[in-house]
Amino acid sequence: METLFNQGSNLAGAVDRAFIFIFAISFIFTIGITVLMIYILIHFSRKKNKNPQQFSHNTRLEVIWTVVPLIIVLVMFYYGWVGFAPMRQVPKDAMPITVIGKMWTWDFDYGNGKISKELVVPYNRNVKLNLVSVDVNHSLFIPAFRVKEDVIPGYNNYLWFKPIMKGTFDIYCSEYCGLAHSAMLAKAVVVDSLDFDKWLADLQVTGNLPDHPGLVVMQANTCLTCHTLDGTKVIGPTFKGLYGRKTTVVTESGEKEVEANDDYIIRSIEDPNSEVVKGYNRGLMQPYKDKISQEDLQKIVDYFKTNAAK
Amino acid sequence: MTNTVTKEPLNYLNHETGLWSWLTSTDHKRIGLLYMYSITVFFCVAAILGLLMRIEKMAPGQTIMTAQTYNGMFTIHGIIMIFIVVIPGLAAVFGNIFLPIMIGAKDVAFPKLNLFSWYLFMTGAMLGLYSQFANGHSPDTGWTFYVPYSAEASSNVVVALTAAFVLGFASILTGLNFIVTIHRMRAPGMTWFRMPLFPWSLYATAWIQLLATPIVGITLLMVIAERTLHIGFFDPSLGGDPVLYQHLFWIYSHPAVYVMILPAMGVVTEIFPTFSQKPVFGYVPIVFSSMAIALVGYFVWGHHMFTSGMSYESRWFFSFLTFLVAIPSAIKVFNWLSTMYGGSVDLKPPLLFAISFIFLFTIGGFTGLALGSLATNIQLHNTEFVVAHFHYIIFGGMGFAFFAAIHYWFPKIYGRMYSFKWANISWGFLFVGFNLLYFPLFIVGIQGMPRRYFDYDPKFQLGEALSTIGAFILIIGLIGMITNLIYHSRRGAIAPANPWHGVTLEWQIPSPPPHENFDEIPVITHEPYRFDHPHTN
Fold it and tell me: Which of A146, A145, A147 is nearest to A131 (CA)?
């Protein structure tokens, strides 16, 4: 179970020590400055103090308030450094997993064609994530593990950790990457070593996802970021129960009712903005004409037909 | 001239009238007001966009706008606020109006260039807005225009960078003008260390404007070369380096942070002595800390990129320098408190805003240390903690200093006084609203809530909803403050020439100032903050 401040990895302890040190000092100074300010406002108010003193220097005081903060920030720097340095020293035995970021989904490649949509990792074993982007900048962020590194095209960025807590943890994209940036999510699942080995052995070579050819086409074109299969309303209408559904669409000349048949589905993919389902916005989806082959379009239609009851 | 019958004595506001006389005026005070009115309009637009974004984030999922609209909105909000409001803000408005007066000059060194800068500024601002609506859809790159996304998103990035370039030129020319003015036009007897501290802060700022801004121009030329000649600078598909873009962007945009905060520090450094009737504590250290901030501020840009894949060595080195730049700011806070200590402190609206500045800037500064520290940065980078931090610095710092400045100099600018009661009430809404709006974002940021998220996990909802309530309270305060000021600029009670018993030169001339500031150029015989105990019994 995830609480808000889990220390899910070996790196979290040192990060949190730096947090506690910096925030404690900050808290003390902020309170101190505020209390002093209020004291001055009351004690030296014009009503009480009509004779302002005229001093403007105090060398000893000025040296103190230069040197003491300098020492404090150097200690802060030190805590930050020792918490960070291990993040760049990957143990040699770390298990490599390639993370592929693309708008707006994560793939976790375990090698030999085994690709998962979830980052499943074995408890208490070192894991190295090699970060690859196929389009724009992303950033892999697992708050519970205190790790984050940008995923940049052409760069071989990496991060590593050793999970020390079993459970399921959130993965976010934390570098803005366009329309569905906030939907570019995944889960990190920490399981026992034996369970992990079994899971990896069972992971199908083409990935562990349902493999209707139509669905594969849609995944390749990131359709499912905006259209869900489970009835949830996100950016576009859900695909659940699509085939044969009667919907009201808005065209240039007004509203009309259509039935989602073969023609309609292909039309909505190739020229999505000519008929927009009522309640959704025009212009968010790019036309896929000539970007998806006629053969693939048929696969998609076939998928909706066979899954119409779902 | 003399046959004009007028009740009021001639001053810069009434010696000529009509829109044309304003649009062609080379008077530094009128140009300052042109900046103030245009910046206020842009600020209100961007603030409303901010409120709409907060309403959207009241609850997870879509509430009032689509993801595309939200992404476009935070882009426009950022571009307007950063490039059009806060970077020119204090220097162009109060720097223009008061720099020449405070150093005993009749105008800036190049008055026509000064007016030209305002036209450049307006051109850049219009181009910036145009870039948001050109090609039929508003771009959604964020104000940082990171490639490759910005390169693929639309061609508007060239227009947007051109806007930043033109705005940058306005900034460079203003900086150049101020540097020459300060070097050449100080009144007789005003040595460097007899110059008040607001002009000193403008001097430090002007050097940053002059030296850092050209980087934007270079970046623009590289982007154009990439897009038209297909020379790969930034785009990986042409063999370019996306991180190089981030370096170039922050080499300008980090010093730009100091362009806005240094004049803010300068403003409150004028307010504390006046309302304490006591000399500034540590005049020379304040001067040198301003120059130190300007200098070290050039070398800390890498702290925006700790997770970008920079080398290990550059990460710890940039972190180290970032901690060093905290020291001059800390020194200033202690100096301000010591200036008030032992004084005769009068809590009028300008001082109320100035002490709020200290409080908010302190929180902004300390949370900046958590971001500058490598280990904690890894957790906080690109979360809403960063959003909260820079709003505490930019809005709590520069914004509240701007509010302090307008309440301080208002009677000088318009010759009239606003209502203290309404100023205090508006301050209450602004201060409470501000903290409620931004403080919860620190908490959700530490918990991992990334920034620029249209939708979010329900576990963050409490903080997000509190923040939205804060936004409404803040807007009420803004409306109250602006109404109070606009209404009383024409109908307020006539203000005396020196309502706060200030000792710098602007308080020694009539309110509003005459067209050429001084009938006779003053001769300066002592340091700037010498009070003659006006309240001594």
Answer: A147
As assigned by CATH, the class of the A213-306 domain is mainly alpha
Please indicate, yes or no, whether the overall pTM of this predicted structure exceeds 0.90: no
Check pLDDT > 90 for residue A248.
no
Q: Is residue B10 part of a domain?
A: no
Least confident of A275-284, B86-95, B447-456: A275-284
What CATH number is attached to the domain comprising B305? 1.20.210.10
Question: Beta strands A115-116 and A119-122: pairing type?
Answer: unpaired
Minimal Cβ distance to A84: which of B242, B378, B452: B378
Total structural domains within chain B: 1
Across the interface, of A79, A135, A172, the residue whose CB is closest to B450 is A172
CATH placement of domain A12-88: 1.10.287
Instruction: Note the pLDDT tens digit of each residue in A150-177.
Output: 999 989 999 999 999 999 999 999 999 9
Does residue B176 sit within a domain? yes
Q: Confirm whether B536 is domain-assigned.
A: no
A6-43: per-residue pLDDT in tens? 899 999 999 999 999 999 999 999 999 999 999 999 99
Task: Identify the domain containing residue B69 by its residue range.
Answer: 22-508
| Cβ neighbours of B483 (radius 10 Å) | 12
CB-CB contact of B303 with B319 (8 Å):
yes
Q: Is the pLDDT of residue B138 over 80?
A: no
Alpha-carbon torsion (B171, B173, B179, B181), positive or negative: negative
- The distance of B57 to chain A (nearest Cα, Å) reads 12
Domain ranges in chain A are 12-88, 95-202, 213-306
Could you report the per-residue pLDDT of B311-358, keeping only the tens digit for each?
A: 999 999 999 999 999 999 999 999 999 999 999 999 999 999 999 999
CA distance linking residue B449 with residue B443, whole number of Å? 9
Which residues on chain A are in Cβ contact (under 8 Å) with B346?
45-46
B residues 254-313 near A, CB within 8 Å?
276-283, 285, 307-309, 312
**Residue B460: closest CA among A139, A4, A225, A251:** A4
Judge whether B152 is closer than 8 Å to chain A, CB to CB: yes
CA B178, CA B422: separation in Å to the nearest integer? 35
Q: Flag whether B11 is in a domain.
A: no
Fold of A95-202: Immunoglobulin-like (2.60.40)
